[in-house]
Design a protein that fits this description.
Blueprint (H helix, E strand, L loop, with lengths): L2 H15 L3 H12 L3 H14 L10 H8 L11 E2 L2 E9 L3 E8 L5 E7 L6 H16 L8 E6 L5 E6 L3 E3 H7 L4 H20 L2 E2 L8 E4 L4 E3 L6 E2 L11 H4 L9 H4 L6 H17 L11 H10 L15 H14 L11 H12 L9 H13 L1 H50 L14 H13 L5 H17 L3 H19 L4 H16 L3 H18 L5 H16 L3 H14 L7 H17 L3 H19 L4 H16 L3 H19 L4 H15 L4 H19 L4 H16 L3 H19 L4 H16 L3 H18 L5 H16 L3 H18 L5 H16 L3 H15 L2
Antiparallel strand pairs: 1-2, 2-3, 3-4, 4-6, 5-6, 7-9, 8-11, 9-10
Helix pairs in contact: 1-3, 2-3, 7-10, 7-13, 10-12, 12-13, 15-16, 16-17, 17-18, 18-19, 19-20, 19-21, 20-21, 21-22, 21-23, 22-23, 23-24, 24-25, 25-26, 26-27, 27-28, 27-29, 28-29, 29-30, 30-31, 31-32, 31-33, 32-33, 33-34, 33-35, 34-35, 35-36
């Protein structure tokens, strides 16, 4: 059947459906003339429609296939552009969704295909609208759009982020989430919806099945198939019954059911229903066994029971009163009396989590009292004026002002004391002589410590100053002084506030970050976890101190090389720091650390994207000449280095060194680290003398600061070994790499990917001497360790496999060698520039191996690739 005939079937069905059943056949005979097949098709649809609403539970394409004896499960194409279909994920009213893999990148995606595109122009328009909507939305909690195209027959399709998760309500049930956990998940959903609203998009079909929660606890909002631009909301709604079936009745607002104008208030209502279901464990209206008309009447007219009447979670009466208000205000049948925006709903969720009063109040008292006052304004004002004045003055002056006065007096005394501290800090050694003209930062800090020690009568101020001064010493690389001050702050806070308090938690978090700098990683993680648990007991979930403690745990795990866990925690910290009013510098620091983790995990594209975002934030916060800007430039350079873009890596590193030297001076560990990184890029451009000079300066500074056993010292030794190797000084290189291995083993207890790097480098020296049997076990040991630490397609894994292949070929074991060399080549060719040196080595080895194995075609292929690289 062609589209013209199907359109005629639709028109006749809708016309006949509006008539009494007794008149439908006569109408069809008159309208269809001598076409009994047409009459039969329409009568079949009318029969299904009369069976209790089942017809309307299907989408338009499904009706067409069932009515016209089509097969709704025809297999789709196996390939969409570069994407190969793996399996069917699901079918909906708009189309079919497949799980697919991008062949060149190996990444999983979801492909949505408009099913039966010929059936209705309106369906094609809605499909295109969903694609356009997703293209303009870029939010971590909204499934992203990657690509779009059409099949050869004109069928449109687009590629989305594949979300491996479960519906929101299922996740909460499976994990037995507490009320607080459910509210935090709901809050994340609200942020995604609010973001869409800010971009003029109304979702119109919010429900748990469109909100998936991943295993890491992050949410993704899906299915913008019937979303609508705010500027187009004044257009008339599709009033046909088929049009109304695009929404989900149980979550639809009364105005959607009635076919009235929708807007932000429509999504607010649906969010209220979702919150109700999360808290009560059931929907506010059970429409499962009702006809569409009965369901519409129930939703439009009947008030739902309070969620507290059938709650799944225990909470006190006062808490449930507020939760009832949250749900029922969002779900009010009058749009004017709901929360005015999703942001207003989020504010009240935050108020609840913080134990603060809600902005919304129970409907009955507030609304009816307001109505009464408006009807009887003059008598009410006259009668209540004297009472309000007396009671208001008593409450205000005897309670509010007393509390405010006490707080103000306390804060004024505290401020005055700190101001005096600062004046004394900058005062010269002899008051009669006036201030010193050559005060240095360290001099000021040392004087500040002496001044702080004199505040024995004000222990809380003294503890805070110890904490702050310790943090500054840490930034300057003076860890012993920092440790002493932070320990003093911790002990004083325990004495003042108790061993289990948020003040003590702050000190534990700061000590954890210091232990990380000292490479005491076990202590760093232990202190960070103690600080996080304590902060969560005493502070609201979205408090900045909770975010900082979460960050500290993530940073400790990063230091131990546990990148997947670190990414999860740093992502949580970033989410907490992304709320309105949060600290932008804290968010930038967390995103920077998250970018580092992605880098170490070999996900360079994500790391590069995050680092560029951080760089923009830092330029706005600090300008162009701040050390944090230098750190991000270093990170961007490191990514380019890994990708084989050595001149670009050098450019970023020189910019960073210029900033760091101007800020810290030439004899500082930060300057030394930046010299080491710059030397890396110079080494791979064969500028060995420049690199060696920088590295010897760097090593001397780092050993003075950290002592002989520290990861930063090992990093400098690694680069010195690389330079010595390239200069043919193999004994020097062996000594550097051996010392590097020993440092990493001492610091990381034999469990870190850097140990693998050092062992692989040492094995490379043995291979350069022709000692292939001695090199082989080191490469195999490195690969075994890599298998538990990083992804199998990590660049470092590729390099280790290429090196192992080289060692095996050197022993004449060409079949084994070819397997390793080819595996390393296949990883690198997807991830790096074609001119990367390790790819060149792999090609040369593969030529030798294939020639030895009598595979001339394969050998010729790699010879051609080598020749291509040498052409001008």
């Amino acid at each position: 059947m062609d589209s013209t005939r199907w359109k005629r079937v639709q028109e006749l069905f809708h016309d006949a459906a509006d008539l009494p059943p007794s008149e439908q056949k006569s109408f069809l005979h008159a309208a269809c003339g001598d076409d009994p097949d047409l009459i039969g098709d329409v009568l079949a649809m009318l029969h299904e429609d009369a069976e209790g609403g089942s017809l309307l539970d299907q989408d338009l394409a499904q009706i067409a296939h069932q009515t016209l004896a089509a097969d709704p499960a025809l297999p789709g194409p196996a390939q969409f552009g570069p994407y190969r279909v793996q399996r069917l994920l699901g079918e909906g009213g708009m189309g079919v969704v497949y799980l697919a893999e991008r062949a060149d990148l190996g990444s999983l995606v979801a492909i949505k295909v408009l099913r039966d595109a010929w059936l209705s122009p309106a369906r094609r328009e809605r499909f295109a609208s969903e694609q356009q909507t997703l293209a303009q939305l870029n939010h971590p909690s909204i499934a992203r759009l990657y690509d779009a195209d059409t099949l050869v027959d004109g069928t449109p399709w687009f590629v989305m982020e594949y979300v491996d998760g479960v519906p929101l309500t299922d996740y909460c049930l499976r994990n037995q989430c507490s009320i607080q956990q459910r509210l935090l998940l709901f809050r994340a959903v609200c942020e995604a919806v609010e973001y869409a609203h800010q971009h003029a998009v109304i979702h119109r079909d919010l429900k748990p099945s469109n909100i998936l929660v991943k295993s890491d606890g992050t949410v993704r909002l899906l299915d913008f198939g019937i979303a609508k631009q705010i500027e187009s909301l004044d257009a008339p709604m599709d009033q046909t019954r088929t049009g109304l079936r695009l929404m989900t009745p149980a979550y639809a607002s009364p105005e959607q059911i009635r076919g009235e104008r929708v807007g932000i208030h429509t999504d607010v209502y649906s969010l209220g229903v979702i919150l109700y279901e999360l808290l009560a464990g059931r929907l506010p209206h059970d429409v499962a066994n009702l006809t569409p008309g009965e369901a519409a009447t129930l939703i439009v007219q009947r008030q739902p029971a309070k969620p507290s009447t059938s709650a799944l979670n225990s909470a006190n009466t006062a808490a449930w009163a507020d939760l009832d208000v949250l749900c029922l205000t969002a779900m009010h049948k009058d749009p004017e009396r709901r929360y005015r925006s999703v942001e207003a709903l989020v504010r009240d969720v935050d108020h609840y989590l913080k134990g603060q009063p809600l902005e919304a109040r129970p409907d009955s008292l507030r609304y009816r009292a307001g109505k009464f006052i408006r009807r009887n304004r003059r008598p009410v004002v006259a009668a209540g004026l004297a009472f309000a004045l007396v009671i208001g003055l008593i409450v205000f002056f005897t309670v509010r002002l007393t509390v405010a006065r006490n707080v103000a007096i306390s804060e004024a005394a505290r401020t005055q004391r700190i101001q005096q501290f600062m004046l004394n800090l900058f005062q010269g050694g002899d008051e009669a002589a006036g201030p010193s003209d050559d005060l240095r930062v360290v001099t000021l800090l040392d004087r500040g410590v002496q001044e702080a020690r004199s505040l024995d009568g004000e222990k809380d101020v003294q503890a805070e100053l110890y904490q702050t001064l310790g943090g500054i010493y840490e930034k300057l690389g003076k860890f012993d002084q920092a440790d002493s001050l932070m320990q003093s702050a911790l002990q004083q806070r325990k004495a003042l506030f108790g061993a289990d308090s948020h003040e003590v938690a702050e000190s534990l978090t700061s000590l954890s970050l210091l232990r990380g700098e000292q490479a005491k990683l076990d202590q760093a993680e232990q202190l960070a976890r103690q600080g996080l648990a304590m902060s969560q007991r005493h502070l609201p979930a979205n408090h900045p101190a909770v975010a900082r403690a979460t960050f500290a745990v993530g940073k400790a795990l990063e230091g131990r090389g546990e990148y997947d866990q670190a990414i999860q925690l740093l992502d949580q910290a970033a989410s907490l720091q992304s709320t309105p009013g949060a600290s932008a510098p804290d968010l930038a620091a967390t995103l920077s650390e998250l970018a580092n983790c992605y880098f170490y995990a070999g996900r360079y594209d994500l790391s590069d994207s995050l680092n560029r975002r951080v760089l923009d934030m830092q330029h706005q916060l600090y300008g162009d000449r701040h050390p944090l800007v230098a750190d991000t430039l270093i990170n961007l350079g490191a990514i380019q280095f890994q990708l084989g873009n050595y001149p670009e890596a050098e450019k970023f590193s020189r910019q960073a060194l210029d900033v760091v030297q101007s800020w810290y001076g030439k004899d500082h560990p930060e300057t030394a680290d930046t010299m080491t990184i710059l030397a890396q890029a110079l080494t791979f451009q064969k500028r060995y003398d420049e690199a060696s000079a920088l590295l010897h300066q760097s090593l001397a500074i780092l050993e003075r600061t950290y002592g002989p056993v520290h990861p930063r010292v090992a990093f400098a030794l690694n680069e010195l070994g690389n330079v010595a190797k390239r200069q043919g000084k193999l004994d020097d290189a062996e000594a550097d790499f051996t010392r590097e291995v020993n440092i990493y083993r001492a610091v990381y207890h034999d469990k870190h990917y850097l140990i693998c790097v050092a062992m692989s480098n040492l094995g490379g020296i043995y291979a350069d001497r022709g000692e292939f049997a001695r090199a082989e076990p080191l490469f195999r040991d490195a690969l075994q360790r890599y298998s538990t630490l990083v992804a199998p397609d990590h660049i470092n894994v590729a390099i280790a496999r290429i090196r192992l292949g080289n060692a095996l070929a050197g022993q004449g074991r060409y079949a084994e060698a070819e397997k390793e060399s080819r595996a390393g080549y296949d990883i690198l060719v997807k991830k790096t520039s074609p001119s990367v040196n390790w790819l060149k080595i792999a090609r040369e080895d593969l030529v030798k191996e294939y020639e030895a194995l009598k595979h001339p075609e394969e050998a010729a292929r790699f010879k051609a690739e080598l020749a291509q690289l040498t052409r001008p």
